[in-house]
Each structure stands twice: as structure tokens, then as C-alpha cells.
Write a structure and sequence with these properties.
Order of helices and strands: HHHHHHHHHHHHHHHHHHHHHHHHHHHHHH
Structural class: mainly alpha
Radius of gyration: 27 Å
Shape: globular
């Protein structure tokens, strides 16, 4: 029998795991922000540029960008305070979070492997063995390789190199801690300490949900733990007790579900899914579930946007789903619930992201597998643990062969990830790669156009938008972006034509209404501009820009009271809207309210608006 390592002796293993993350993903620190949500979430998000009580209240009070993720926004706000808008620091935060998650997967494996081993043998698990104090060497090896392959797999690159996927990193962080706390609760059920661990698990679940709403499935995962891993009923605990103790979790879960539905109102379903035939709609859940295991087994042709599969491939995926599920059930009948537990946990955590159900415009994306993949890699780690245990009494050569066999996928994954990181270096590299992988999809052309537009290449951008529209004539985003490009080139009539086409393609395209309104106001057609802003507000009243722009139009019409109300409405929707505060000050001056004007200018100055700062300085005020 091999000696058992003490907890302190695991420190080098943890340090090695973290070092591997920085070795493989260190190049991601030099990546730029992407005008692919990074602008909306971070460097153009006025609401996170200051970290105070008002901005924090704003984050938690309302959805943002068709999702309710206040804790994720808070993490971006903290980054802004630490690093400003230097992308290096924001990428560092992603890498640090991912490294911590790798360590948590390792520790989680050390907690569950001893219990799973007893459950596999048909015994009632001794939950007092849910401890990190004295793990077996085989447990350490299995948990290490599970965490290392999970964390170094090239499918993880998207979540690390793309700042905007902070939500998946935080979701996994709090979910893993929630499950670990629940396991500790099981070790001391019926004692005073159990209450603390139960409350800790519930709190961590709430934090996971505040990071990303798909955390709402966690209570189901905990019930699967009860049934298949901990075998709680075998210890005399009834299903009534198990379900009742999950009631607070389900109440929170329902609340997050309602918030997610409310936040996603008005979201478009991907045209890929809407173009499916009835047969494809039926097969799509099976394809979506099998998509990620296939990518984990064969991580080729990774891209930020995946195209639609053919019906034959979807049928193959459905057959594969049935086969894998059948194998899992067969193992359960043989007294091994571990396979079924990992498979069901994967399915449950994947369901909210299945194409057509999520609020996103992509039916499938590498980032969607971040949390669900944990159970599959822990299953792999259990297999490695079994191999090591089987060969532990044999020669050193036999055990060395097992170690080399396990290390080979680790080396392959690390190498593939290092090769994938430059793809995410900037918008040009990302979307050029996406076009090479999926030349028939319009979205990569449109997004490459945005990257070119951002670099001042209006003609190149227009070429990309035209290619996108050629592939999908009713592609509202590309039509809208063509309007933006023509507006930047000083061709307002062409811009109006394409904004109008974007609205015809998507009557709920509020940004197109706003830009049309701006063009009308600049041309002196104030009433028409105001009508466009009102249309935008009717579509989505959570955005501040329509109110702000309408305030300018109303002020131009000398309707100061209504203009003031519009600026106030803009601030309610964006606490960091410095221009709105400044214009409020201008209106207050016109209305003879000097004190309110100075207060408004002061708020604008504190938010960094130079015009307000110069004005206050000229009047002898500080801010």
C-alpha cells in the first residue's frame, strides 16, 4: 500500500498546475480588446468606469445587454479601476480566474474520487471521506490530469483570450465552490457545522447565478449528487428531506430564470436555427449535446462561429447520444453510477445553451462547454485514477508507461492551445480565421468589416459588409454597419438607405432607429428625428442613447423641460453618462437653477468629461 500524501505536500502540484496555465496561455496577455462585446461590456461601457455605490446599484438593478450578470459587470468595473482600459490587465484577470478554476477542478476531484470509488463498488459511501487531508496518490494523479487536460484544452482558449467571456469563468468558479461546499455539508449532516456549509453552498449558488443565469440548473446537479454519488437515501435520508432542503435553491433558480427571460426579451434567434427543417429542429438538441464532446475529442477547426450541420450529421449525433446514454445506463446496472452521473451533469449544464434556447445569437460556441466539460474531464480523471491504481503494485516501468500515456494528451492540448491563442490576438486575426474556417457564413465577414471600420478602412469594411449581405440579404447587422460606414464617409443619403433596409430586415433594430434619428436631426428634421427616437424607446426602453439624443433634439426646439426629462431618463439607465449630466447642467442654467447646474457639471467632471472640468475650473469650482 502506498503512503498517503498530506495536504501540504499538494502545494507543488497546485503550483505546477498554475504554472502550466501561464506557460500555455501567457501569450493571451498581449491580445487586444475585440469590438465583439468587449466594447459594450468594458471599454465603451460608461457604467463601469467608476466604482461607487451608484454604479454598483445600477449593475444590480437592471439587465444589461439582454442579460442579467451584475457580478460579471462588477468584476469588469474592478478591472477598470486596477488597469484602466489596458487590455493586458483584463486578460490577466481572465487567466488568473481560469488558473483558480483549474485548481478547483483538481481539489474537487480529490473530494469526490474516494466517495465515487465506494459507490462504484456498490457500498454506501462514507461521506466522512469527503476530505482533502490525506488523499491517496492515485486520487492525486487522477485529479491532476483531469484538471490539467480540462484547463489546457484548446476549446478553453475562447474563454481566456476573450475578455467578454468573464461570465463563464465566474460561473465555473462559484459553481465549483458551491458543489464543494455541498459535499462538505454532506460530511456533517445533522450537526451545527452542517448549517454553515449548507448556507455557504446556497450563497455560492446565488453568486454563480449573478455571474451567469444558466447557474439555475445547479439544484438539479446537487440532486444528481444525492442520488448517484452520495447515495444519500441509502443512509436513511428520504427523498422528501432531500427535495425540501433544495427548496431555497429552486426558489433562487426560478428567480434567475425569470430574470433571464425578462432580460432576453427582444433577442433574436440565430438565423441558423430558424432556417432548420422540422426534422432538424427535432434533431438539434441531440446534435448540440454531442457537439462539445466531439470537439473535446477532436479539437479541429475551432472558430468563434460555427455553421449549420447537415441532416446526416445530426442523425449521427442523435445515434451517438443514444449509444453513450445506453453505455452509461449499462454501467449503472453493473453497480457503477459514476459514468451516468458525469453524463447527466454534462447534459443538465449544457441544456440552457442548446441552440435556439439561449439568448445568444450563436447556437454553438466553445465557451458554452466551459462548465459542462468539468464533469467529463473528472470522468476521464477517474479512469486515469483506476489505471494508476491497477498498476501501482507492478513495476516502475509499468507505472511510468501509464504516466506517459496520460501526459501525451496534456502535451497535445497545450500545444494546440498555444497555436490557437494568436487567432484571438485582434479583430482582424479572429475574423480572418473564422472566414477561412466557415467561408459560407455571413457573420465573420460582417465582424471583419467592423474591425476594418475601427481601423478607419471604410472601403474595406464596405466590401466585407457587401459579402455578408450577399450571403444573407436580410442580415440586419451587416446592413446597419453599411449605414455606419457610409455615414463615416460623409454620405448621409446612402446611410439613410441602409439604416432603412436594416429596419426592414429587423423591425426591432433599435440602434438603426437611433442613427436614423441622428441623421434627421442633423438635417434639421427635428420632429422626424424625435419620432425615430420614440420608436427606439418603444422597442427597448433600457438603453440611454435614445433618451439622450431626443433630449438634444428637444433642446434644439427650445423645449427645455422635456429635454431635461430626457437627460434624466438617460442617467437612470446609465449612471456613468457624463454627457447627459453635462447637458442637464446646461438646461438648468437656462432655467435659472444655478445650484442644480453646478451639481450636474460636477457629476460630469467626476466622470471625466473635459468640457465640464474646464467649465468648473473657469468658475473656480473643484470636483
Amino acid at each position: 500500500m502506498e503512503s498517503q500524501p498530506r495536504l501540504w505536500s499538494l502545494i507543488p502540484v497546485v503550483l505546477l498546475l498554475v504554472a502550466l496555465q501561464f506557460l500555455v496561455y501567457g501569450a493571451a496577455l498581449d491580445s487586444q480588446f475585440l469590438k465583439y462585446d468587449d466594447d459594450v461590456y468594458v471599454y465603451e461601457n460608461a457604467n463601469i468606469q467608476k466604482l461607487d455605490a451608484e454604479s454598483i446599484a445600477w449593475m444590480f438593478a437592471r439587465p444589461y445587454y439582454r442579460s442579467y450578470t451584475p457580478l460579471t459587470l462588477l468584476s469588469h468595473a474592478v478591472d477598470v479601476q486596477l488597469w484602466g482600459n489596458d487590455p493586458w490587465g483584463h486578460h490577466l484577470s481572465n487567466l488568473v480566474l481560469h488558473s483558480i478554476n483549474a485548481v478547483l477542478v483538481f481539489l474537487f476531484g480529490l473530494m469526490i474520487f474516494p466517495v465515487a470509488r465506494l459507490a462504484t463498488g456498490g457500498e454506501t459511501p462514507d461521506t466522512t471521506r469527503v476530505s482533502l487531508a490525506s488523499p491517496e496518490i492515485a486520487d492525486v494523479i487522477g485529479a491532476f490530469f483531469a484538471a490539467a487536460i480540462f484547463s489546457l484544452h484548446p476549446v478553453r482558449v475562447e474563454s481566456i483570450a476573450w475578455v467578454s467571456d468573464r461570465k463563464d469563468l465566474l460561473l465555473a468558479f462559484f459553481t465549483l465552490l458551491c458543489c464543494m461546499a455541498y459535499m462538505r455539508y454532506e460530511t456533517c449532516r445533522g450537526t451545527r457545522r452542517a448549517v454553515r456549509w449548507y448556507l455557504a453552498s446556497l450563497l455560492l449558488f446565488v453568486l454563480a447565478g449573478l455571474s451567469k443565469s444558466i447557474a439555475l440548473v445547479i439544484p438539479v446537479v446537487l440532486i444528481l449528487f444525492d442520488a448517484l454519488l452520495l447515495r444519500t437515501r441509502a443512509r436513511g435520508i428520504t427523498w422528501t428531506t432531500l427535495v425540501m432542503e433544495k427548496v431555497p435553491f429552486f426558489i433562487v433558480s426560478i428567480a434567475f430564470g425569470m430574470l433571464a427571460i425578462a432580460a432576453a426579451r427582444g433577442s433574436q434567434t440565430s438565423y441558423i436555427v430558424t432556417d432548420f427543417s422540422p426534422a432538424q429542429v427535432t434533431l438539434n438538441p441531440f446534435y448540440s449535446i454531442m457537439f462539445y464532446p466531439a470537439k473535446l475529442l477532436w479539437p479541429a477547426h475551432l472558430t468563434p462561429v460555427y455553421g449549420p450541420p447537415g441532416t446526416p450529421l445530426m442523425i449521427i449525433a442523435a445515434v451517438a447520444f443514444v449509444v453513450v446514454s445506453g453505455i452509461a445506463i449499462a454501467y449503472l446496472r453493473k453497480g457503477n453510477p459514476w459514468f451516468l452521473l458525469a453524463w447527466l451533469c454534462y447534459i443538465v449544464t449544457t441544456l440552457p445553451t442548446i441552440g435556439g434556447l439561449s439568448a445568444g445569437i450563436q447556437p454553438w460556441a466553445d465557451r458554452y462547454s466551459y462548465l459542462p466539460a468539468v464533469s467529463l474531464f473528472l470522468l476521464l480523471g477517474a479512469g486515469i485514477r483506476w489505471l494508476w491504481d491497477r498498476f501501482q503494485r507492478r513495476s516502475m516501468l509499468a507505472r511510468g508507461s501509464v504516466a506517459v500515456l496520460c501526459a501525451l494528451p496534456l502535451v497535445i492540448c497545450g500545444g494546440l492551445s498555444m497555436r490557437q491563442i494568436p487567432v484571438w490576438q485582434n479583430g482582424g486575426s479572429l475574423w480572418t480565421h473564422a472566414i477561412a474556417e466557415s467561408p459560407d457564413l455571413p457573420m465573420p465577414y460582417a465582424n471583419l468589416g467592423v474591425a476594418l471600420e475601427d481601423n478607419g478602412d471604410h472601403n474595406g469594411a464596405l466590401d466585407m459588409y457587401a459579402k455578408a449581405v450577399g450571403l444573407e440579404p436580410h442580415y440586419a447587422d451587416a446592413l446597419y454597419n453599411m449605414g455606419v460606414a457610409y455615414e463615416a464617409k460623409g454620405l448621409p443619403d446612402s446611410a439613410v438607405a441602409f439604416y432603412t433596409r436594416a429596419i426592414a430586415a429587423d423591425t426591432a433594430y433599435d440602434d438603426a432607429y437611433v442613427n436614423l434619428g441622428n441623421l434627421h436631426v442633423r438635417a434639421g428634421r427635428l420632429d422626424e428625428g424625435i419620432r425615430m427616437y420614440e420608436q427606439a424607446i418603444a422597442i427597448d426602453g433600457t438603453k440611454p442613447d435614445p433618451y439622450y439624443n431626443m433630449g438634444i433634439a428637444l433642446y434644439t426646439k427650445r423645449d427645455r423641460e422635456k429635454a431635461l426629462a430626457c437627460f434624466q431618463s438617460a442617467i437612470k439607465r446609465s449612471a456613468g453618462y457624463a454627457d447627459a449630466y453635462h447637458n442637464m447642467g446646461v438646461v438648468y442654467l437656462d432655467l435659472g437653477n444655478g445650484a442644480a447646474a453646478i451639481e450636474s457639471f460636477t457629476r460630469a467632471a467626476r466622470l471625466g468629461l473635459p468640457e465640464a472640468q474646464r467649465l468648473l475650473r473657469s468658475k473656480g469650482y473643484s470636483w
